Amino acid sequence: MAKSNMDQDILKVLVTEDEIHARIRELGDQLYDRFHDKNPMFVGVLSGCFIFMADLVRAAQLKSEVEFIGLSSYKNATKSSGCVQITRDLQRDISGRDIIVVEDILDSGNTLAFLKDYMLAKGAKSITIVTLLDKPARREKAITADLSGFVVPDEFVVGYGLDYCQQYRNMLYIGVLKPEVYSK
Ligand code: 5GP
Ligand code: MG
Ligand code: MG
């Protein structure tokens, strides 16, 4: 593991850098099998998706487009507010398109339930949800990912795109913060 002064804030590692990369290669292969004869549009949910998205689109090696939407249901807290806001709207027409949604983590399901309805209303032909992490313990909406990287326990995780107060997104692995970090 490369040196990092973020490591000292981590209580435990849940998914290592090597495990993440191996799993993303598998997810990329599965996407290639499903979409190689289509021209899908990847839609990443900002900001948490940005590192996963970069690795996933390269692993899939599909003729495809890349687009982003900004959604927010968190206000620097570790729990969802349940109310989803669009902070940066889609810039392209998605009607008739096969959409691959790329999310960092599926938790309560509020964000992806909102996004699925929103994209169906905009005329998406199909919606495939890919999430790096799935935390089923706290689901409030009946929504499942079509592909997911890892199931994680009911703990607040950071790293590989996921933040706490906008920090730790650049950590190479997924981990749980020490409790004292939250009380600082
Ligand atoms: P949901 O709407 O499914 O509750 O949560 C969606 C968003 O909440 C995720 O895209 C992510 O940004 C944030 N989130 C949920 N659980 C966690 C977590 O354990 N760690 C971090 N850093 N963000 C989380
Ligand atoms: Mg997210
Ligand atoms: Mg966040």
Automatic annotation (TrEMBL):
Catalytic reaction annotation: GMP + diphosphate = guanine + 5-phospho-alpha-D-ribose 1-diphosphate; IMP + diphosphate = hypoxanthine + 5-phospho-alpha-D-ribose 1-diphosphate
GO biological process: GMP salvage; guanine salvage; hypoxanthine metabolic process; IMP salvage; purine ribonucleoside salvage
Annotated ranges, domain Phosphoribosyltransferase: 18-164
Gene Ontology CC annotations of this record: cytosol
Location within or outside the cell: Cytoplasm
A Pfam family: Pribosyltran
Predominant place of localization: cytoplasm
EC number of this enzyme: 2.4.2.8
NCBIfam families xref list: HGPRTase
Protein family according to the UniProt entry: Belongs to the purine/pyrimidine phosphoribosyltransferase family.
Record's protein name: Hypoxanthine phosphoribosyltransferase
Gene name for this UniProt entry: hpt
